[in-house]
Amino acid sequence: MPEGPSIVILKDLIQELHLGKPEVLEVTGNVNNFDKDKLFHQKVEDFKSWGKHFLICFKDFTIRIHFMLFGSYLINARKKTPLKLGIVFKKDELNFYTCKVDLLEGNVKEHYSWENDVMADEWNSKAAIKKLKDKPQAMVCDVLLDQQIFSGLGNIIKNEVLYRTRIHPLNKVEDLSPVKLKALVTEARNYSFDFLKWKKENTLSKHWEVYNQKVCPLKHKIDKKELGKTHRQTYFCKKCQKIYS
């Protein structure tokens, strides 16, 4: 599943085409939960990302693309995989595959708050800490994947942030000191931007300290277990990462 930084890369790639506010000249694909003709001859107001969602914003509605586990896209190219949604402009085309596509009525700001997008300029770390404190019994391995607190964070970032902060994934929020809570929130954003940089360089996996690793940087054995209510695969070092309860 693409994490927030990968969606930012898509947004940047499209904005580099200098499309301006392009008019939709053709709409294709097998999406069937809304009338595709609604896009025809409409002008795109903006391309945005929110966490793991890619947003194509029109005047009175927004197309939301969620890539789920196996989604993909091509710009100015096509492949044989069944097309979910294809949008053709005068000089360029965007094609989306194996993804979830929805149409959101009204202004996009009615649906999203960018203060909980870890990569947005509007990111609000104080609000994130407050939301964490409102879930004292939640395990940190779960709250880092809560898109209403850390939109854009996925399993890779979760594992790496917990190792960076030396926090064991089975800690509850209430077990963490104010210093540790602040460190968790700070590193969630910091690692997301590191992820973006390494992803663009095609060196992301070379920087993993625990994710998909056998030993940590200090040569301790890495444990791999499905933890938390999310049951997501979690990599951690019992010697480096502390349980505070």
Automatic annotation (TrEMBL):
A Pfam family this chain is assigned to: Fapy_DNA_glyco
Catalytic activity: Hydrolysis of DNA containing ring-opened 7-methylguanine residues, releasing 2,6-diamino-4-hydroxy-5-(N-methyl)formamidopyrimidine
Ranges for domain Formamidopyrimidine-DNA glycosylase catalytic: 2-100
Alphabetized InterPro entries for the sequence: FPG_cat (IPR012319), FPG_N (IPR035937), H2TH_FPG (IPR015886), Ribosomal_uS13-like_H2TH (IPR010979)
Superkingdom of the organism of origin: Bacteria
Any single GO BP term: base-excision repair
GO molecular function: damaged DNA binding; DNA-(apurinic or apyrimidinic site) endonuclease activity; lyase activity; oxidized purine nucleobase lesion DNA N-glycosylase activity; zinc ion binding
Protein name stated in the entry: Endonuclease-8
Taxonomic source organism: Pedobacter suwonensis
